[in-house]
Amino acid sequence: MVMASLLKLMLVFCIAGLIPTIQADMSELDEYWSQRADEAREFTLQAYHSDPYEIIDHFHERHYE
User: Fold this and answer.
1) Where does the UniProt annotation place the signal sequence (predicted)?
2) Is residue 40 within 8 Å of residue 34, measured between CB atoms?
3) Alpha-carbon distance 45 to 64, whole Å?
4) What is the pLDDT of residue 12?
5) Which of 20, 42, 61, 65 is the most exposed place for a label (fewest CB within 10 A)?
6) From CA 55, how far away is CA 42, in angstroms rounded?
7) CB-based burial of residue 41 (10 Å sphere; 0-12 exposed, 13-18 middle, 19+ buried)?
């Protein structure tokens, strides 16, 4: 009997936790995360160097000379 009431209580908490998720405005969040992804992609492309030897030379100049 105690176990059944605990399961019912757990079910109520699960449903109560799902309600805000169901009612969330996902289109607003999608815009935000799409914008963040675009910014991250741009930052990554700016930081990318295609010549690995140039990167190593820069590192050695800075730390060993």
Assistant:
1) 1-24
2) no
3) 28
4) 93
5) 65
6) 20
7) exposed
Residue type at 51 in one-letter notation? D
How many Å apart are CA 18 and CA 20, to the nearest integer?
6
Q: What is the domain partition of the chain in residue ranges? A: 25-65
Q: Check if the beta carbon of residue 41 is closer than 8 Å to that of residue 35.
A: no
Whole-angstrom Cα distance, residue 33 to residue 46? 20
Helices marked H in 1-65: 2-22, 26-47, 52-64
Is 60 strand, coil or helix?
helix
Q: How far apart are CA 1 and CA 32, in angstroms?
A: 48
Which amino acid is located at 37 in the chain?
A
